[in-house]
Sequence to fold (279 residues):
Amino acid sequence: MNVTKALVTGANTGIGKEIALSFASKGIKVFIASRSYDRTLPVIQAIEKLYGAHKCEWLSLDLGSIKSIDRCVDSFFEQNVSLDYLVNNAGFAGSRGSTKEGFELAFGVNYFGHYVLTRRLECALIRSKNARVVNVSSKVHSIVKKLDFASLRKPTKSLSGINEYAVSKLANILFTSELHRRYASLGISSFAVHPGLVDTEIWRTLPFFLRPILKLKGMLTPEEGAKNVLQCAFVDASTHSGKYFSKCTPSPPSTLATDQELAIKLWEQSESWMNNYSK
Ligand SMILES: NC(=O)c1ccc[n+]([C@@H]2O[C@H](COP(=O)([O-])OP(=O)(O)OC[C@H]3O[C@@H](n4cnc5c(N)ncnc54)[C@H](OP(=O)(O)O)[C@@H]3O)[C@@H](O)[C@H]2O)c1
Fold:
């Protein structure tokens, strides 16, 4: 029997955890790709208790390391040939540094790691014949006015890391539109989504005195954030693939995020970086 399968990154907590639970509730087998088995175990146990054994599998994944991404993909391919849903959800804001391969930390994890993961999984997605890739972006992408390619290969420059986070989320949207342009005819639909302002661990790096202000702005629960993301996974792909969603509706992203030349340049540069780390 051909079981419908979903792979969700960073599903040990926050929005990703709720996405995994929701896929499982629909009878979809979920692969949770995350950094720690111990931190993921409670989610696996919750899914198995609610929906039965073998409904969930763990894959080790650190998006800041190409080797780890390759191992994750190899483990997936050991038992599976097709993938129906890929939710590129994992992400962080506010930490500084660079990835193992020398990419700015937020860009490397939130965008480039997901670019490599998606490309490495593309034959499984094509085999599904009706696959969906959902890239979790953010409204904050709109603060970026220019994409400086040189800075993407250097450690985080800003003190807060917020500018770099915004760049990574802009890259998620550019990736989505280019993925649509190149792969829609092969049966892969793609979506970018802002989940809303959601009360999760992502805010742990925020100074403690700012947290009550955020709460006053009215934060969504992780379940509500997951609902916004999943809405894209089930929307009519023929009219909505390639689009950016906010508040559950297709919305115009920033002008820079709709720059097709920039999307092509980012894709080609990412492909060339990726090929430098080919298996
Ligand atoms: N919360 C919001 O208000 C908000 C708003 C806009 C967009 N978003 C986006 O929503 C997505 C989910 O965030 P969240 O709010 O649910 O945050 P969260 O609760 O902090 O969850 C983030 C997940 O990403 C994982 N992650 C971080 N770095 C990773 C790496 N190098 N490799 C693999 N996994 C990694 C984390 O794993 P560990 O547990 O191992 O750290 C965790 O599972 C992110 O892409 C975020 O940018 C959130």
